[in-house]
């Protein structure tokens, strides 16, 4: 990890004798810009090939085919590339590529994903270019990010800055719909995070009002399922000593108490689906439910499913404990249970993460690029970078700029690809020269 004492001068400028702001890039770094500019036809052609190969999370051969395309890009650069089959989790697998450097600099992990939300039955299947923008399924999330990784590494190879760098690239094949069990689906990524000092994640770049933003924090996500039970019988007995309040009132009590008692900054708790009656059930996975009943029957069972998003592990633990305490305060003749299903851990805004952003902004200053600000984590979703945040310093959102993610018409700004590739190539090179 990068330590706070390195913050004083933009972190990595301890490597050079230059000033903290606007230092002249080394000759090898100057070559990065020329290499990236010259590589753009290759980068855009690769993006088109990746986008035109459907790789919906459930299209296992398609995800593997995209992995093979990336393998063909990385092996000539000296990477040892492995395909980790994950069909036991119901998904295709992950691509892990390792470049062995001199072992003296920071170990750097680059994170992206091969899959998209668009399955083969989607009508949105092809890359279409329109001047400096292009549309296509997954073009920004995350095939544009994958192209930026490849373009940066190709430039480093051409400029001679890749040779001594210790790098792992992990491209998951199920970021949009993780395999199960989750521990198995993310075991290889977690292991890479334990190896790394710094992790860079290539989900979409946020651009707002002409300003580029980086991500130093992401909220974690845990799904929850609340089940309330009651005694059923004729509605004339509701609220009475014999039958009590029924499951629907117990469910309503709990959810309303969540609304009133839980709110705090950066914490949200959504109720996505609820059913109640005699009987009432949610299908496995909690995406659909059924209920039956009559106006004169007290509900026997009620179920709700939602998610909890927290910025830090401490905040999540505090919210869970309060939710369980609320659940335990049952109405007469009712019961309730609350079960959590972990999804993404929180990526807290640490000093180390901000140090990496400081280092990136030194790159921006040296190359005459705009400085990048921190993006509000409450306005960003979860991603795979959260799985390594406990072990490495993380900077996220380094992919391509665009709009319409997860929807037909998803668009990427092609001009953002060389800008992001240059930022990454210079930052990775500097990290690789920073002693561990």
What does this structure look like?
InterPro entries: ArgE/DapE_CS (IPR001261), Bact_exopeptidase_dim_dom (IPR036264), Peptidase_M20 (IPR002933), Peptidase_M20_dimer (IPR011650), Peptidase_M20A (IPR050072). Its cofactor is Zn(2+). Pfam families: M20_dimer, Peptidase_M20. This protein is α+β, with helices and mostly antiparallel strands and 436 residues long. The protein folds into two domains: 4-218 and 347-432, 3-Layer(aba) Sandwich (Aminopeptidase), CATH 3.40.630.10; 220-344, Alpha-Beta Plaits. The chain is built from nine helices and 19 strands. α8 (351-367) packs across α9. Mean pLDDT is 94; it is low at 3-19.
What are its keywords?
alpha+beta; Aminopeptidase; 2 domains; 4-stranded antiparallel sheet; 23% strand; elongated; cobalt; hydrolase activity; hydrolase; Bact_exopeptidase_dim_dom; metal-binding
């Amino acid at each position: 990890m990068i330590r706070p004492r390195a913050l004083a001068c933009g972190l990595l400028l301890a490597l050079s004798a230059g000033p903290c702001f606007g230092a002249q890039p080394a000759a090898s770094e100057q070559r990065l810009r020329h290499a990236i500019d010259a590589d753009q036809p290759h980068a855009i052609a690769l993006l088109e090939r990746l986008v035109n190969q459907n790789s919906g999370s459930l299209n296992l051969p398609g995800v593997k085919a995209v992995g093979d395309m990336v393998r063909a890009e990385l092996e000539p650069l000296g990477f040892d590339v492995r395909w980790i089959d994950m069909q036991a989790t119901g998904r295709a697998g992950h691509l892990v590529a390792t470049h062995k450097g001199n072992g003296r600099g920071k170990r750097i992990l680059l994170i992206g994903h091969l899959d998209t939300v668009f399955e083969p039955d989607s009508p949105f299947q092809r890359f279409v270019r329109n001047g400096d923008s292009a549309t296509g399924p997954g073009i920004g999330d995350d095939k544009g990010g994958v192209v930026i990784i490849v373009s940066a590494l190709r430039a480093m190879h051409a400029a001679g800055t890749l040779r001594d760098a210790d790098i792992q690239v992990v491209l998951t094949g199920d970021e949009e719909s993780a395999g199960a069990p989750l521990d198995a689906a993310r075991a290889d990524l977690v292991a890479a995070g334990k190896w790394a000092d710094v992790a860079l994640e290539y989900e979409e770049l946020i651009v707002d009002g002409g300003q580029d933003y980086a991500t130093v924090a992401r909220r974690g996500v845990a799904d929850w399922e609340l089940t309330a039970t009651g005694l059923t019988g004729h509605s004339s007995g509701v609220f009475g000593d014999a039958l009590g309040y029924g499951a629907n009132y117990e469910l309503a009590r709990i959810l309303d108490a969540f609304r009133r008692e839980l709110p705090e900054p950066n914490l949200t708790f959504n109720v996505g689906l609820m059913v109640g009656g005699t009987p009432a059930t949610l299908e496995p996975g909690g995406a659909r439910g059924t209920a039956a009943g009559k106006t004169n029957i007290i509900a026997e069972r009620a179920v709700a499913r939602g998610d909890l998003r927290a910025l830090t592990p401490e905040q999540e633990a505090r919210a869970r404990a309060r939710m369980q305490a609320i659940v335990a305060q049952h109405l007469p003749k009712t019961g309730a249970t609350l079960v959590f299903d972990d999804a993404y851990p929180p990526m807290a805004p640490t000093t180390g993460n901000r140090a990496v952003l400081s280092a990136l902004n030194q790159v921006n200053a040296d190359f005459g690029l705009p400085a990048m600000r921190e993006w509000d984590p409450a306005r960003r979703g979860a991603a795979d970078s959260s799985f390594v945040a406990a072990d490495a310093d993380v900077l996220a959102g380094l992919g391509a700029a665009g709009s319409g993610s997860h929807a037909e018409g998803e668009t990427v700004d092609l001009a953002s690809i060389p800008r992001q590739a240059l930022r990454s190539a210079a930052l990775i090179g500097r990290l690789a020269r920073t002693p561990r």
